[in-house]
Amino acid sequence: MFPTKSRTDVSAGRFDWLTVAFLLGAVLLCYYLVPLLALVLSQPPGVIIQRLTRPTVVSAATTSLTASITSAAIASVFGLPLAYWLARTDGRVKTVVTAVVVLPLVLPPIVSGMVLLTVVGPNTFIGGLAAANGLQLTRSVAGIVLAQTFVASPFVVITAKAAFESVDRSLEYASQSLGKSRLTTFRRVTLPLAWPGILAGITLAFARAIGEFGATIMLAYYPRTMPVQIWVSFTTLGLENAFPVAVILVGIAVATLIVLNVLGTNPLE
Q1: pTM score, two decimals?
Q2: Which of 15, 34, 83, 148 could bond 71 through an S-S bridge, CB–CB 3.0 to 4.6 Å?
Q3: Could you give the C-alpha distances from 144 to 29, 66, 222, 247, in angstroms and in order?
Q4: What is the C-alpha to C-alpha distance for residues 87 and 191, in angstroms, rounded to an integer?
Q5: How far apart are CA 223 and CA 217, in angstroms?
Q6: 157-168, pLDDT tens digit by residue?
């Protein structure tokens, strides 16, 4: 009889594609991690801390945090009702509305800024009316908030929509069968169950808002946010002077990942 190869021998003669996949993926992981480590380690900690106290850095950080918190709050106030409506609605209208919500995510940020300028710019009806009443919608914190809300609010809507859809609707039906109104059911049943996903969406919106550059610089070069300050420092003083603010943004990005990990929610899944 001819000798036969065992299954182990056959497997040993084949490529381990799982290992190959990991090695190929590891190249991309290194491409992610090495630049971040280079950024953090390129300057002595003492130098970075000293530069963090500069008035321009403190001002940019304060402006970014204030505007981003405001943007995330606005996105939550208006985005959560829209997300709930989308989660409980079917039909062609839902598809159209969802497409409109996602549109700011696929628009280039510079184009988003241009779109907003055609509505709230100083020469538009809305912009002129606001200016006449003492509110500048460009070159102001209001302009920053408008830009950030436009690009970041879809994260709240899309993530919260998925969270609401994950709630078992039979629980809502049971609550309503006991005489509870839709609003009471939403507050006591749906919202608590969907809250981890909602909080994940708000966190993502905040992180996206605080890192926004393209739309922000179109609407409000002043006061400067951290991304704008990075660009100004890099173009006028060189890469080294842009490091402190960049380190702050990296820290915020890491904190965002920690929050999402604690919540046990991955909005991309």
Answers
A1: 0.83
A2: 148
A3: 33, 10, 9, 21
A4: 13
A5: 10
A6: 999 999 999 998
